[in-house]
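sanity check this:
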Amino acid sequence: MDKPKIKEKLDDLYLIQWGHYLIQYPEPIGYRTYIKGEVRNGRKTKYIQPWQYQNHLDGKHTIGTFGGKVFTKFITFDVDFGNNPELAKWMTYAVCNTLNNLGLHDHYISSSGGKGYHIELFSDEPIQISHARKLFDSVLDEADIRQHFIDGEVEFRPTDKQGVKIPLGIHQKTGNYCGFCLIETGLAVMDKNESEEYLFTIKKTSKTLIIDLIGAAEIEIKNAKREIPKLENAISSHKPLPSYYQSEDYSIDHAKNLFLNGLKAQGSRNNSMFLVGLYLKYQGFDQEQCKLELYNWMERQDTNLYSTPLNECYKEIDATVKNMYEKNYNLAASNRDLTVSYDEMKWIIEKCPEKNQKLITYAMLIHSKRHADGKGVFFMPYTMIQEATGLYDQAVKQQANKLEKLGVIEIVERNRIPKIGGLAKKLPNLYRISIEDLVPNSERSDNLFTTDKLNSFDLCMTFYFTNKDLKKLLPRRQYEALIR
């Protein structure tokens, strides 16, 4: 990619003044702030130079920029949850969803180089930092995420005193590339070539739209004649970005809690609804099923916690789910290992006479371990059972009914239809595995089979049983079909 053209594009998007910038050098030097005219090592600091961009793109050091004293070209939502990378992803999804809901679709995500993200919105004309900050605060209020600012926060950048690294460089502490990310790919970081190409697809947002959204049109008119260059003599120091560490699957657990326990505070409906929708999508619901399940969820909420009429809530659900599936938003989750005991495996073999029944019960058991509520109840769409077992739809439905008659599973609720009129599509059944009374085998409790896969039934059997045991436990054809 032509580096001069990349420099030109970065200048156009990010820099409002060239005489105040920061450079992140490899450790132990770290961050240094430069101000034109200052004497450093016997030399006066100059404007940022082309060779410094060259070093930035080559990964030798990393450039950061500041806003002006009054104006900025862009707004950064600096998502910084160093102790909780999964929460950082969820916050990124929440902010982006809110921007979309406000009609601000041209926003762009890049990796901070640690385990955080920069969400950036570029204005087609310089915008007052006070107005940019007002939009930033409005987005966070609408997203209703501040209550989660415990392990970190979403910070406003840039100002004349707090800078932000520009993308396409290397984080000099972690060595990670600060490339662009897409929600559609789970925020996987694009490589150098992909990111440089993506840079040229970035579109700016109309300043008029931003001003209209924050209701600052009259104030903006009064300031229209002010000369921008004379206002951009910012002098400040840079606050270094913190490190990032591993954490648990916060977003999944929080979304599950919202689905099971509902709204807890006023003003949280929109964001909670979005997160519950992502949770349902994560569990395998198709778009229509997700929408109808959200109707049911909304009907269960305490009416004292929201003021929007239910019919309007349905419309918002329709729009949210449509956007979620069209843009393929997903909850980020690591593949946590799930444990299956010897007794559970023996119970499945003994209780399920047919091969397909064994496969379905095992898949349901694994699914219930991740998603069942406190009473052991969970839903699992037929499509997900099919994916886990390789069975066809009709076979899954028939075997589910047989398993209920055998007492292996309980179909807690079937043929569920939302209360809202005119909708006939049924929601996934609610199930419970009938395994509560199982007495653990103390001799087998220390060495447990763990898996992050749904289709590892054969591995689990051979983990606990020898081929000789399995030939006794299984009919010949089942043994030949299951043990490969």
